[in-house]
Task: structure prediction
Amino acid sequence: MTAFLLGVLSSLLATALVFVGGWLRTGRPRWWLLGLLSRLTGTGITRLYRHQGSSEVDLAQDLARARWVKVLVGRGNVLTRDAFTPLWSGAPKPVQVLLPDPDSDPATWLSRRGADLAHTDPGFGPELLRAQVRANTDYMRRVRERSPAVDLRQFDLPNTFRIIATDSGAYLTFYGRHEHGRHSPCLHLAASGALYHAALGLFEFAWANSVTSRGRRGGG
Result:
């Protein structure tokens, strides 16, 4: 049942991203038409970013105003950048963080993602990706020691998307197979839209099937 749910939600989100990607390639999007379609269809897509990296200014503003934050990332570099720094040093707010498990079986999703990236980035490979995830996991463990509102877990699921959600909206990226996340299109989803709730469903599925840093199943 959980595999079926994950497949349905992933298909829904991926279809929306493919549509938006095609829209972006046609030239300058007509933002008023996008807003109209979003309201008529209930999808809740409010902003499009040609590349994930260009969303960070807006992301930082949304994180500063958020009452809670949920993060699922494929590598975790964004957690060490300026957009997240106020979360770690400011007034505590609940933050759930999911990072890939760097110690999972070498044949699993994290290794596959590293091998895929090596097709277009000659300096990349499964072991480098694991090393980067380990470094970011160590960083978050130290953050958690100073901030009890931060909950850190690890997952072993398809390493193909990123979700950063707050009570007011979510940033969703589906990674191109051979592209770093920063080069992939990113959607901003309003909290009132269907895709926002689908993204939260994906996060909650991953959270329920995650493990803590002590190796205990998170959903038990």
In short: The chain has seven helices and seven strands. Residues 2-208 form a domain with the Endonuclease; Chain A fold (CATH 3.30.870.10). Strands lie at 45-49, 69-72, 95-100, 150-155, 161-166, 169-174, 186-190. The chain has one domain: 2-208.
